[in-house]
Amino acid sequence: MNIYSKKQRWKIALLIFALLLVGASLFVSNSIVSKVGDRERERAKQWGDAVKKKIELVRLTNRTFTQLREREREKMTLWIDATKEVSKATPLDQVPNYDFPLKIINGNKDIPVILLDNQKKVSGNINLGFDTSTLRSEYLRVSAKELVSIFEDSLLSLAEAWQEKTPSFTIEVYEGLFMTYCYNDSKGIARLEAERDSLINAFNDDLINNEGLVPVLLVDNKRKEIIGTNIDDYTITKNNIDRHIAQLKNQNEPIIVDFKDGNSNTLYFDDSPELKQLQYFPYIQFLVIGLFAIIGYLIFSTFRKAEQNKVWAGMAKETAHQLGTPLSSLMAWVQLLEAQGVDKMVTVEMQKDIDRLEKVTDRFSKIGSGAKLEDTDISATVSNVMSYLRPRISDKVDVTVTTNDSLSALHNAPLIEWVVENIAKNAVDAMEGKGNLDIDVQGTPEWVHIDIKDNGKGIPSNQLKRIFEPGFSTKKRGWGLGLSLVKRIVKDSHKGNVFVLESQQNTGTTFRISLPSNIL
Length: 520
Fold this sequence. Notes:
Blueprint: H1 5-87, H2 99-106, E1 113-116, E2 122-126, H3 132-136, H4 144-165, E3 169-174, E4 177-183, H5 187-207, E5 216-220, E6 226-229, H6 241-251, E7 255-258, E8 264-269, H7 273-339, H8 344-369, E9 374-377, H9 378-389, E10 397-402, E11 408-411, H10 413-430, E12 435-443, E13 447-454, H11 482-494, E14 497-504, E15 508-516
Parallel strand pairs: 10-12
Antiparallel strand pairs: 1-2, 1-4, 3-4, 5-6, 5-8, 7-8, 9-11, 12-13, 13-15, 14-15
Helix pairs in contact: 1-2, 1-5, 1-7, 7-8, 9-10, 10-11
């Protein structure tokens, strides 16, 4: 009979229910994380599309500026031709008509020009927007001649910078006299470029530096150059870009930004810090729930064990108390029979049973009030209990006791006798009243071992961990309390251990009782 079978089924059912709750919680949390991840990937794709539009806008703008510069160069060519025409020498008998060339020359109101002679000296300028009066505020203590020199040096440096940006024109004005015309973008183009750069910078500030975006890295596939990124956690250079690209590729599938003209960029992106933290949330949640469950179980187990100890102690005290009254009565009846001259063998056997009941009562009283341990010979304790059991078990059971008279341990003899008796009776039941029962007492410097071996039917391996549980029994009429009492006596009262040393079905079982030894 297993009175705890329903309890075990309830435990299993509650465990399954708890696992289902945890599984459902993890599923919901992972689902939320997955949805957040999908949204971040969509945002990264939108970022890539926005960058694509930005690049297309820049390309369109650059084409427009190229066309404007070409027109300005044509205008400069016409302006230079007009200047050259005006500079030509004409016969004295002819009156030259310079209206058209002068109209062209005077029409240049925007394009800044610096004129250099053969010796790379400044010969003239137009449309610069500054002159010596502009420099006077910076050079207050220089003379007018020195200020003109500084102004011409500035124009020469400016002309050289313009030549690097825009090809200049060199023409022969007179025979042997060459003049170089250096020019720059007109004020209108410069203003448009400034507005374009301002828009692009604002775009970059709003897009690339936006902290709300996921960490992204846009790379030109041909040149392997970084077009844009908002990653500030580490520095990305040409030397380590491949390593960072590999790391980002492992995080998420990169997005290809194709411009349909043979050029393409690749957008690599990482999960946001918030998403990374959120990914660990289900496991942290599971850990917290697990800790609460463990703490709750330990508290419940502690209270349950304390309650069980009270129940055991109360039951033991009550049993000892209840046995006291009939024992006193039986002792009086034995004395009465002896006084009436009844056969002495009858009274002697009755007295043995009374002594046995007194020992049982003493055992229960010791469980209820605590056991007093004495440093005595453990071999004598085992021999005494087996001497009592021999005539009370089947004659077909061959009992062998091997002891060592030098072994001693702190123990309570009546309780250890009860332990050995309980295990020995279970062994006889397992052999069905026929077989060999071997008891061996041996010692080590730390422990005294009492091995009780039978050749019965053995214990199935799936039941070895449960045989000491209260209520577990393989007998149809058993209550499952004997081995539970054995364990409590050995572990709680004697700080020892009791376990199945070996068991094989249809071969036998060996129980080992280990008590702390006093051998030095």
